[in-house]
Amino acid sequence: MPKMELRDFMEQYLLYSRIPITEITTKAPFAFAMAFTEEPQCRNWYIRQRFKDLHVDVDQFCCLELACWHLEDLTQTVRKDQRPSPEKFVIYWEDFRAFGIQHPSRKFCIPIDYCPWCGKRLPQFDYYTKYRKEEE
Ligand SMILES: [Zn+2]
Question: The DUF6980 domain covers which part of the protein (predicted)?
């Protein structure tokens, strides 16, 4: 099967841009799904376009892959007293202004210092600000 060209992918974008990324492989037509998963050109364009549609700056993230998970709400902003839903595994921890990975038990989060996709250093857990705020 010939790979899908970016131009064709872009033309089909509107048809499938509402499908959650976790369901593209099962709900979008095979050629589109393959382009999304296997063609970096298509995948990156798709992620940038979704953010553009939402008027959110994609470049605030270290890379498009982290942005992608954030986009799909698999990265959820959580506070210490909240529990994210089970399907959310990369979490932005508001209290600490940092990212973490949720343990499948949902009982705790593991702080991550580096992006799992691009390896760049992520904002470090800001314990200082957090506990200062609680003391005030
Ligand atoms: Zn990254």
Answer: 62-124
